[in-house]
Amino acid sequence: MSLIIDCGAHTIKAGLSSHTSPLIIPNYIARTKLDRNKSYVGSEVLSRTDMGGLLMLLAFQKGYLVNWDVERQVLDHLLGPSHLGINPQETDLVLSEPPFNFSSIRDTLDEILFEEYGFRNVTRATSANLSAFHFHTEHPESPSCMVIDSGFSFTHILPFCGLIPVTNGFIRIDVGGKFLTNQLKDLISYRQINVSDETYVINQVKEDTCFVSGDLYKEMKVCRDEMTAFRDTNRFPNSGIFIRYILPDFAGTNRGYIHDPLSKEACPPDRTLSLGNERFSVPELLFNPSDIGLDQMGLSESVQLSLKRTPPLMCESLTKNIILTGGNTLFPGFKDRLNAELRASLLSIHDLNVTLPIGPISYSWEGGKRLANTELSSRPIPLTPLTFQSYMEMGHNAWNAKSFPLFS
Amino acid sequence: MEEIKEIKPKQKSRSDIRILDSVTRQRRKDIHLESLEKDNFVDDESIQMSAGKQTIKEMVKKRKKVKTGEHYKKRFRKNFSSLLEEIEFQTDQPNYFTAKAPKSILPKRKFCAVCGFPSCYNCVVCGGVYCTIECQLTHKETRCNKWVV
Q1: Which of B47, B72, B108 sits opposite A290 (nearest CB)?
Q2: Is A96:A367 a contact under the CB 8 Å cutoff?
Q3: How far is A225 from A208, CA to CA, in rounded Å?
Q4: Which residue from A212, B26, B29, B65 lies 20 to 30 Å from A321 (Cα-Cα)?
Q5: pTM
Q6: Is B98 or A157 the better-scoring residue by pLDDT?
């Protein structure tokens, strides 16, 4: 039996190789403001109806695992009888890690996985590598692919030659879902209602309303016109950028929703947000982080830089196979915007094909599932597992010995 | 003419305005960017502290885990900055630092700090961007003087 865990900073995607889709559960411990002693681990958070003033205790910091206390509690909960209910001694584990993972994190992870849980064997790969594997099994004719992984902590651009990562071309933009949620929270708190403590709710607002604009200045103008029209006539446009959003009060409604301008429903003033340019200026930070003073390249510029850093012969194949993964790619218009910006900047001889898979969040988990279902002999060496016995014999050095079997 | 004379002394002359130097402006910007990396609005540290207490309590309840829990906390409690120090600086191998996206070559765009629309004026004092006199007044009263929410 194989267990695949794609361990993200915000959610864990986990499931057995026999499952069709993974469990997606929060990878943090939540506390409420009122009762700080009661904590909710992992999926217990989702069972709460009142999400107001939720404090989150994340295991990850800037995308890397640092708080082992939290992570172990979440893993205990996940492997326990309430979810998977498996026996680690009889389980093969496929676990994802962030790119350029620190060696001390890896060592600790080994210790916990083998010595605490006692997994039969462990395969460790970056989540992008699993995505590349997924893509490779679907399109075996493509020699290389470029994974754009835009997650909770950061956005990575990762070119792969076959299944081998071209680490020279790896580029990280420090803008992720958390950054965007906080920016939206900051804008709303400054302009309208103070929502500083409502990270969970504002994350939902972001998911419900934000989109990536095709033409920023045009959209700004449309939004401004709608706002002036509203000021004059006090009427909201039927379908436009300027909308009203009703926040949940956790008494009658547990989830916020977009107010339908055609309905006669009254808007309670203390929990109504008027969202105009926030809706697209927030996701815009992925493409232009410099808008709020973060001195980094945007997404399409970084892709170009990454192409420059990779061997020129690969470029043609890379631009043909760009895969988008991670939660931020679910913003409407994300793919079209990236496609348009890249097309404008690439040479005409380069074909461009940006693919947004159906489930971008679980794409790498499915890659892991395919990996778990392939035979060991047909796997590339970096994706082969480390067994419990060899770890017990060699400790952390076992990984190196595995990579160079000739010297062991 | 008399009216103008009355108003004039009220206006601040240029030398009276306290103009923030570039270091302070940068620091303000950095504080804002750092705040966007936080998990919660309240101090992350304070939650972690209370969490630590909580887990110790739990550990005491489950006797079996007392030793391991404490052990892991002592050995592996590291924050992100101490992890970064561990990276060996090997110039020929790509690492966490080389992967960081460099500064953009495109010019910066300007958006009003108050309403968010494109704008072209800068606050004399702090360098913040605003678009109209209305927004300028709001800016002056709020974020220009004190770095408030």
Answers
A1: B108
A2: no
A3: 23
A4: A212
A5: 0.89
A6: A157
